[in-house]
């Protein structure tokens, strides 16, 4: 994972959660720290969040270039701040990510790939815990400029490798999700 840039998205409003979910505790650890720990082996680490909101030692703060525009805008900020190559993008609300998850995505890359995404149990791609190549930046910017906000459109199907067989990821959007 040494050649990956890690990017954790923590700039959301947490409106469904009712409080800052990045700071919510699960097994004595904040959601932010849990997600960051899964990517600690990456050589460069970016935290896409409002400046000064979180203290994450070893993580470089990157302001969201389009606040309120969602994860696709967070991906744009991360791709713009990363050196050329691969970015491991993770939402702060995915506390079950592990280094093994990222390693499996990394091993699935091919020379023509621009994104690698796991499939959930229903066969749906998981774009919020995926690999994206920085070559996607112009496409992502174009999508945002046209009013698009869906992260799943960041890479075309033809340039995306889908990986099955990985453990399912829990998405924490509400306090009830955190308790489960």
From TrEMBL:
- Provide the binding site for Mg(2+): 93
Where is the protein localized? Cytoplasm
- Name a biological process GO annotation: Mo-molybdopterin cofactor biosynthetic process
State any GO CC term: cytoplasm
What are the names of the required cofactors?
Mg(2+)
Q: Which residues bind GTP?
A: 9-11, 21, 64, 93
Which top-level enzyme class is recorded in the Swiss-Prot or TrEMBL entry? transferase
InterPro entries found in the cross-reference section: MobA-like_NTP_Trfase, Molybde_CF_guanTrfase, Nucleotide-diphossugar_trans
Question: Catalyzes what?
Answer: Mo-molybdopterin + GTP + H(+) = Mo-molybdopterin guanine dinucleotide + diphosphate
Keywords, sorted A to Z: Cytoplasm, GTP-binding, Magnesium, Metal-binding, Molybdenum cofactor biosynthesis, Nucleotide-binding, Transferase
Which part of the chain is the MobA-like NTP transferase domain? 6-152
List the Gene Ontology MF annotations in alphabetical order.
GTP binding; metal ion binding; molybdenum cofactor guanylyltransferase activity
Q: Does the keyword Transport apply?
A: no
* Its EC number(s): 2.7.7.77
Q: What is its main location?
A: cytoplasm
Q: What does this protein do?
A: Transfers a GMP moiety from GTP to Mo-molybdopterin (Mo-MPT) cofactor (Moco or molybdenum cofactor) to form Mo-molybdopterin guanine dinucleotide (Mo-MGD) cofactor.
Q: What is known of its domains?
A: The N-terminal domain determines nucleotide recognition and specific binding, while the C-terminal domain determines the specific binding to the target protein.
Family indicated by similarity: Belongs to the MobA family.
The protein in question is named: Probable molybdenum cofactor guanylyltransferase
Which organism is the protein's source? Deinococcus arboris
């Amino acid at each position: 994972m040494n050649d990956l840039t890690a990017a954790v998205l923590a700039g959301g409003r947490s409106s469904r959660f009712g409080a800052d979910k990045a700071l919510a505790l699960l097994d004595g650890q904040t959601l932010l720290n849990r997600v960051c720990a899964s990517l600690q082996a990456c050589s460069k680490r970016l935290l896409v969040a409002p400046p000064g909101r979180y203290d994450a030692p070893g993580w470089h703060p990157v302001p969201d270039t389009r606040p309120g525009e969602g994860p696709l805008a967070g991906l744009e900020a991360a791709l713009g701040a990363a050196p050329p190559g691969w970015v491991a993008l993770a939402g702060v609300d995915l506390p079950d990510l592990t280094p093994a998850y990222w390693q499996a995505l990394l091993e699935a890359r091919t020379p023509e790939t621009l994104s690698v995404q796991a499939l959930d149990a229903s066969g749906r791609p998981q774009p919020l815990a995926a690999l994206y190549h920085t070559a996607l930046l112009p496409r992502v910017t174009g999508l945002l400029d046209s009013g698009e906000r869906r992260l799943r459109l960041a890479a075309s199907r033809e340039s995306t490798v889908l990986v099955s067989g990985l453990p399912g990821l829990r998405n924490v959007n509400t306090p009830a999700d955190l308790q489960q």
